[in-house]
Structures are given as structure tokens and as C-alpha cells.
Amino acid sequence: MTDILFVLLSFFAIIGALGMVSLHQPVHSALSLILTIIALSGLFALLSASFLFMVQIIIYAGAILTLFIFIIMFLNVKEANLPKEPNKNLTLFLGSLALLPLNFLILRAFYKMPLLTAPLEHDFGKIKPLGMELFTKWLLPFELISILLLVALIGAVVFGRKDEA
Amino acid sequence: MSTISIAVVIINVILALLFSLGAAPILVWIERRVAGLIQDRLGPNRCHINGIRLGGLIQSFADMLKLVFKEDFKAKAIQESFFFSLAPVIVFASAFLSFMVMPFADDLIINGERFIMQGLPMDLGVLWFLALAGLSVYGIMLGGWSSRNKYSLLGAMRAGAQVISYEAAMGLSVVSVLITYGSIHLGDIVAYQGQLLFGFIPAWGIIIQPIAALIFIITAFAEANRTPFDLAEGESEIVGGFHTEYSAMRFGLFFVGEYVAMSASSALIVTLFLGGYHLPYLNTQTLQAYMPFILMVLIVALPLGSWSAMRWIQKHNRWHKANDIRNHESAFLQKGLIGLNVLVIAGVGALLVLGLSETSTNVATAVIQIATFALKLLFMNFVFVWVRWTLPRFRYDQLQTLGWKVLMPLAIANIFISAIIVVARGL
Q: Which of B28, B40, B251, B425 is most buried (CB neighbours < 10 A)?
């Protein structure tokens, strides 16, 4: 059962990623990305990381991709305004070739990882242990990342606003 | 899986269906009749099956039938027909799924087995609701975009901007509630609300977190796209908004989806702020301890209530022509009431005479709590309808100002204060 789910979810994730890169219309690309993100959240759920599963949907699918689609629809791109893409397949092929070394690196890192054989605790991946870990052991990096995000947010507001306002 | 656990799972799923999908015709009926009440008119009350009108409830079923059998029209200009058909499905499915984590009753214990009384027995609770509320906006945006109609696109844009901005305030108001309750599992949250504050006030969310309750209820109106936040379909400005091009059952899915989403929001408001399935002063333990007395009260109160209802029917629901078809309704309702009384009294009496075992006490508690939850859900839905027919629509800039400049800072301040109080109490 878990294997079937894993295969299905991975299939959808890969299909979505391929569609994201290769589809012509920006809206279709964004929608494929949603497919990938939801499939990935399903994979998190299979790994009993229930908090990540929910957060992936709330943040990525619910907020960020909504903004993407909002902007794309707002621009109302016409078919004639889209750039022509000659030799698209060739470009995609060359691009994937260029990514091969990176893939190799990731696979190598994956196989070097120690195999976890001990059974998980029953509250693994739930919100409480994750929060405890985050706010005790990893407090400083967590706060630093929050400040980084805040700086980026303020920067976007400063750049985006009109001078006289 | 034993037979009992399969039965409980099936009952839970059916209950979730009844409260969300089954509530839709009732909510449409409430909407129309309350609109009539507020605008000083009657509202629909003529549609009948062999004289039985149930105050106009039959009209909603007739409406559903009409939507199902209407011609499924699609304009030729619509090219993205896959997304055009997918959009109502997304709205409907996400509204429907978000109802699945609402607890109808306390965890039911039968023969030592513990069952979570939810459509989907899991403890993600609030997060699940937030996730699906975020997904439902795709349906509206896709529908508006694939309609290739300026009004539809404008409606979709408005809906998108509105849901994104109000989701932020909603999430923040939920955070302060979660700090107070210390759990995201809705069952734990309701169990917390079964306590008493200072020994005599029920510790309902609306009493210990009034600001969060206010913000959450306002944002829930906005998330459900209902007046005063129904800019997505402001009919005086942009025709029908995102569903201008939709007809027949595709429109029907949007229509039902709106009511299911409203019901889900109400269920979450009831669960977070109105004590969930608890009767005031009677949490699960008290209810189980005093179960025989409560059943006796029920045996006395039900015939009295039915008797006064029958008096009312005989006085007000009567036509002087003896062969008037509407007289069937009075007879039908009275027979129904008598039948209900006989059934309930026989059942409860048998329970009392044979003596309450632990399992039957638990089941009776669950039934009483489910009824309480249903009543609170209906009340909250009524509030949704009440607000819709009382307040005028916000202007777009007012909407965004309210969301970002009022609700958001208020929610953040509330988180801050709640966190300080919780920490101070823990010291």
C-alpha cells in the first residue's frame, strides 16, 4: 500500500516538474508546480512528517503559489506576448545534461547517509517535538533566518513603494 | 478491525456528510427564509410534495433538482475546458474535506477501544482546515481565469487578493488560540473548553480569547466569500463574478461548495470558541456521571416540547376547507412528532429500566454531544446568514485596509498578550 502510494506520488511530482519546465503558458507551468508541491507534501506524510505535510500545503500551495498565479493572471498574458521558444527540446536536453553532475552528487550523498533502523517514536514529526527542537536546540539559526526573511520583506516594501508616498 | 470499529468509522463519515453536504439544502432554506424575515417578506413557502412544505424546505430540494437537470452550457470562447470543469470540483472538494476534521463528540470508548469522532480520525486539526481553505481559492481563481470573461477574471482577482490577505490574519488569530489551548488537535481544544473558569464560567474560547474569536469570525466570513466580503461575486458591479460563465451543475458545485465551506467555518468557530460539543456546565465526565438524571429529564421534556409544538401546529397550520391538501402537512407533522416521542421514550426507558452499562452511557453521551454540536452549528450558520442580510458590502480598499491595518496588528498584539499571560501563569 505504502509502496503504491509512494510510486503514485513520485509519478505526479515528476510529471508536475516536467510540465513546469516544458509547458508554454505560464499559468499551466504554475499549475504543474502546484501538482508537484502537493505530491511532495504527500511524500512527507508518507514519511510520517505530518507537520511538514501540512506546512508544505499551507505555505507553498496555499500562499506562495496563489500569489504566483495571482500575478500571472493579473498580467493577463496573451498568446502573442509569449516568447517564441525555438529548439525548446534541444535546450531542455542540454540543460538536463548540465544538471547530471549535481544529480550524481545528491545521489552519492543520499547513499552515504546512515540507514535509520530504530523504530520511530510515536510522536515523530508532530508539531510539539518539532517545536521543542526548533526553539531549544536550534533557536539561534531559527531567529537568524526569521530576521533574514524580515529584512527581505522590508527591502521589498522599500523598493516597491512610490517615492512620494 | 472489528465490526464495531467499522460501524463507528462508517457512522462518522455519514455524520460528516450530513453536517456538510446534507446541511446545504437546509442552509439554503435558512438563508432564504431569514432573508425574507429580515426584509419583512415571507420567502419561499409554496413548493410542496403532497401538501408537505416544511416551511419551504422542499424548495431547496426542488432547486437542487433543477440545477442537476439543467442544460450544461459552455461558451465557445472557453478553450481551457479541463480547468473550466476542474474549478468547481476544487472548490467543492476542499470545502468538503475541510469539514472532515471537526470533532462531533468526545472520543468514544466501546469495549476499551477508543474512537476519535471525526470524519478523518487524525490530530492535524486546525492546520488541515487552514491548508484546505488555502487550496479552495484555486478553484475560484481557475474558474475566473478559464472563463475568458473580464467580469470573471476581475472576480477571481478580487477573490485571490481577499483570501490571501485574510488568510494571514486568520492564521495569526488561530496562533493565539493555540497558545492558550496548547494543542492543534481539535479534540484536545474542546476538552480544554469543558473546564470552568473561576469555578462558574464555562471556559469557552469566546470568553478566554474574545479578540481572537472576533478576528477569526470576521476572517471566516471573508474566507467563505460571503457578504460583507462577497466582492468575488459582487453582482451589482461584476455580474456574477467568477461564476458568470457557469451554469447547471458546474454552477451547482460552486453554489453548494459555498454553503459547505460556510458550514465548515461555522464548525471550526464552534469548536474553537463556542465549546464544541459541550453543553455548558456539562463536560463529558459530568454528563456521564449524571446520565440517568439527564435521560429522565429528556423523557419528561420531550413530550412537553412536542405537545406545545403540536398545539402550535393545530392552531396555526390549519385550513378550513377539510380537503385542502395543506392539511396533510399538519397530520404528517403531528404523526411524526408522536412517532419520535414513542421511539425516544421507548429507547431511553428501556435503557433506564435495564440499567446503564458503561458502553451504553458512552454511546448516549456521544449522541447527546452530537445533537449539541448540530444545534451550535445551526446557530453559527444562522449568524452567517444574519450578517449577510444585515450588512452592506465592503468597498475593495476598505476590505484591504481592514485586513492589513486593523485585523493583522490586532492579531499580532493578541498573540503577544496571550503568550505573556500563558508564560506568567506557568511560572
A: B28
